[in-house]
Structures are given as structure tokens and as C-alpha cells.
Amino acid sequence: MVSIAAVIVIGLSTTSIGDILHDATRKYVCRVEGPDCGDETWVEKERPEKPEEYTWTLASAWDGEIRGEGSAKVAVEFALAQRGKPYDWGASGRRAYDCSSLMQEAWREAGVSIPRTTWDQIDALQQVPKSDLKPGDLIFFHTMANYPPPSHVGMYIGNGQMVHAGDPVNVTQVLGNPRWESIWVGQGRVPQG
Fold it and tell me: Where would I find the NlpC/P60 domain in this sequence (predicted)?
């Protein structure tokens, strides 16, 4: 007798999951902050065609664990060094990033393995009060109306600001900013040594 799990694994291994996920999600319209709107208002842009660097395989699926402890200083410095690089949905760096890949790569440089997507990141991290934000904490937002929250993530760097893969990677004031405060979903802390 074949178990349900075996059927699912066989089905996944014979299907191009990346293509299915990408085709399903790129149909949504996302709101991004960028130079086209003078960094002052939200504009709507359609998701790009499939990025060259976007790949999803069964082997790259997150197993539910965060591994390691790291330095927030290293993660913040890495993320800040990426300023000016383009936003590319599904990109995994170093030429371009999407929001969650920038966070994953920054913390990988600091010695911590965290999940790839915003949903897995917020679920995996230790939740902290907004009033206790520290540099290196990840902050989550709901930027896409037809997409489950959170759909955007940035890294808190202090002074009410975050570094994030906007369009391009940039530093943005979030605390006290009505636009960001109105779409704020939560915040989490990566294990630090």
C-alpha cells in the first residue's frame, strides 16, 4: 500500500514546482516603493517574468529549523553594503535580491541559516515587542492586498529605520512613518551569539 506521503513526494519530484509557484504568484500585483514615485507614494507594478535566478527544488525546501547564532552587526553591515542593487522577485543575490533573500543572505553572512520566504521567516523567528526592536531584527509588512501577509520584510537598523530590498535595496524610515506603520505585521529576532 502506497502512503499519502509517498504519493506527494513522487508528485513533487516529477513536477516543476518552481514554475507552478512562480506562475501562480506572478499574476498578483504588488506595490513597491521606488524612484518612479519619488519614494513618497505607493505605485502598482506587475510582477516580472520568471527571474533567471529563481529556482525552487525539493532539496531547497526549509526543514523548519534555524541553525546557528550570529552577529547582528555583521548582518546589518552586509545588508547595507547591498544598497543600490536591484529588486528582482525570486532573486537570491548577489546581483539582485528580493526582500526575503536579502534577509536570508545577510544572516547567512553572519553565521545563521534562516528560511527563504517571509512566511517561513516570521513563523520561525522569536517574536519580540515592537517597542524592543534592536538592529538585526526582521520586520514584516503586508504590501500586497491579494497575497497572504506578510509579503515584505526588512531589517531594522536602529533610529526607526530599516534596510530592505525595495527598488533598489535602500534604507527607509519606518517607525513613525504612517505608510509603513499602517501595513506593519510583526517583528522577529534571529538568534545571536
Answer: 69-191
